[in-house]
Write a structure and sequence with these properties.
The protein is an alpha+beta fold. Helix content is 48%, strand content 16%. The protein folds into 2 domains: 3-65, no CATH class; 73-220, dinb family like domain (Four Helix Bundle (Hemerythrin (Met), subunit A)). The strands form 2 sheets. Strands 3-2-1-4 form a 4-stranded mixed beta sheet.
């Protein structure tokens, strides 16, 4: 059994209200996160995410939403930056392909039984795609004090232009940024790991919603766009 260093944050608002998240920082596992109602559940989810049977060694714990680990305060390494860029490119390619495959009715599909945290309003396929770009260009980067990017009107254009903006920023931003504002802590490393995690994580939901929308359309006929 392999020992894996884990970093656990509790009282966070990611997949749920007041949840717990467990992270790893190794470049080969960069951006991997498990979530649950408590530390044990988050570590179990992280093990499933890694696809192995690791023995986790929790080396750091923090409490509170949008805080940072001591590990986040270290300057970002080039391996972390390169891993983030690679994950962003692969994830956006899949997101664009999925959205391009959808009819207008599928883009507006809402799985009525899907439970979201109280702060989340991205119910449809279209809204989830917008959530991805809003998070990267208008939440993560500005939280670190980097430029806010205004959205375009067209989703396909926004997916392309936001990706270019984020990749360009990731490639050139200083390795040691730290910003403390309104009780939150943001650093270069934190933003890199969150970028590497977020779209790749949301793609699981996006695939499921589109598959369900496609199945419903195939079984009952496509809903009207009107």
């Amino acid at each position: 059994m392999t020992d894996v260093r884990a970093y656990v944050e509790s009282g966070v608002q990611l997949a749920m209200d007041d949840g717990t998240a467990a992270w790893v920082f190794e470049p080969e596992r960069w951006g991997r996160c498990g979530q649950g109602a408590d530390e044990a559940a988050a570590l179990r989810d992280l093990g499933a995410e890694l696809g192995t049977d690791p023995r986790f060694v929790v080396v750091e714990r923090v409490v509170g939403d949008e805080q940072a680990f001591e590990r986040d305060l270290a300057p970002a390494g080039e391996a972390e930056r390169a891993a983030t860029l690679k994950i962003l490119e692969e994830s956006r390619r899949e997101t664009v392909a999925l959205i391009s495959s959808c009819s207008p009715a599928m883009l507006n599909f809402d799985d009525a039984v899907r439970v979201l945290p109280s702060f989340a309003g991205w119910r449809t396929v279209r809204q989830l795609a917008w959530h991805i770009v809003d998070t990267e260009s208008r939440y993560y980067l500005p939280s670190l004090g980097l430029p806010y990017r205004e959205p375009l009107e067209n989703l396909a254009d926004e997916l392309e232009q936001s990706a270019e903006h984020v990749r360009r920023t990731v490639a050139t931003m200083p390795a040691d940024l730290v910003r403390r504002v309104d009780g939150e802590v943001w650093t270069t490393v934190k933003v890199l790991r969150r970028l590497a995690w977020h779209e790749r994580s949301e793609l699981r939901t996006l695939r499921r919603l589109i598959a369900l929308a496609s199945a419903i359309s195939g079984n009952k006929g496509a809903p009207s766009d009107e």
